[in-house]
Amino acid sequence: MTVKPNFFDSFKCIASECNDTCCAGWEIYVDADTADYYAELDGDDGEYVRGNLSVGEDGMLLCREGARCPFLREDNLCELIIKLGEDSLCDICREHPRFYVTDENLCEVGVGLCCPEAARLWLDTPLGFLFEDDGYVLTDTEKRKLERQMFIIDRLMSGDGTLGERLSELLGGDTSDSELYNRLRALYSSLEVLDKNFPSRFSVNPVSVSDVRLKNLAAYFVFRYYFELGEELCLKFTAVSLIMIASMDGELTLSAKDYSKEIEYDTDNVERICDFLESCDSIGVLVKKLLQ
Q1: Across the strands, what pairs with 86?
Q2: pTM of the entire structure?
Q3: pLDDT at residue 56, as a whole number
Q4: Is the Cβ–Cβ distance between 60 and 29 less than 8 Å?
Q5: What average pLDDT does the segment 257-265 reach?
Q6: Is residue 11 part of a domain?
Q7: For residue 94, which of 165, 42, 23, 158 has the smallest C-alpha distance?
């Protein structure tokens, strides 16, 4: 079975209209099949493509960390697509910001918040999920896990109480830690980031916020991480992500996009946060207080 948000099939890169670009700042390697295709390209096109690639530690390098892709034009259009079409792109360029989470016979697909258009769709679309029969039959265990995930998403999206109260109820625990936000801010300030100014965007003091779009944001994190992290850690990561995004300066969609770009797309950062959360039992109290 394949599960996806109701806007997934309509998602499309807005190219030069985007206020950001996914073609700069990242270290991007070319997959083996595309590297072979580039190596075999004939004529001027082949010389042009190969002349703009370099060799890194793990193979053919398209873009170095902190740099712009050599095929990214000043108008933020891709010269590869213009010259050779979308089929010429390597896997990561073709698929980004789509993500795929698999669990035996289940595949959940979506688009990551690091893309401004994807963030807009997650936060501003009346959210629902589509279930497609792809020929794979779920086991009883998979059915129960999927049903539980969707129950949690439904509970966070609607019901009695504030979003913080509903999330706190799911998290459980009533341990209070007056220094938790400060410890979280210190942790996030120590992470590896693309933008050196990113850590300064977190408020010195925790921010209480009421925004109906936060429930969609909560649904995103549960959808993306439930099968990867397991229920308890997924709920904790969802809670701290909402707290930290809410504490950032700027408009919510932009903050969510920047948070995703700096945190989610660095696996070391996610791992460090999860290591911290493993032994943290006071998140429910803080999230209940801050998310109205």
Answers
A1: none
A2: 0.93
A3: 84
A4: yes
A5: 96
A6: no
A7: 23
Percentage, residues of the chain above pLDDT 90: 82
Count of domains observed in the chain: 2
Give residue 175's domain range.
137-290
The average pLDDT across 158-169 equals 95
Q: Is the Cβ–Cβ distance between 199 and 247 less than 8 Å?
A: no
Three-state secondary-structure class, residue 125: coil
Tokens of 285: 């109290």
Indicate the average pLDDT of the chain: 94
pLDDT at 71: 92
CA distance 223 to 264: 14
**Claim to verify: residue 195 and residue 141 sit in the same structural domain:** yes
Q: Are 139 and 104 in contact (CB under 8 A)?
A: yes
Sorting pLDDT into bands at 50, 70 and 90, what band is 70?
very high
Q: Which of 94, 115, 145 is the last residue of a domain?
A: 94
DSSP 268: H
b (16+ CB within 10 A) / e for 18-35 = eebbbbebbebbbeeebb
DSSP 8-state code for residue 248: B
291 touches 163 (CB < 8 A): yes
For range 175-182, the mean pLDDT: 90
Q: Which pLDDT belongs to residue 31? A: 93
130 lies in some domain: no
CA-nearest of 101, 106, 99 to 228 is: 101
In a domain, 129, yes or no: no
Average of pLDDT values for 101-128?
Answer: 96
Whole-angstrom distance, CA of residue 79 vs CA of residue 84: 8
Residue 106 host element (H or E): strand 106-111
Q: What is the DSSP letter of 231?
A: H
Tokens describing residue 280: 């943290």
User: Is 241 part of any domain?
Assistant: yes
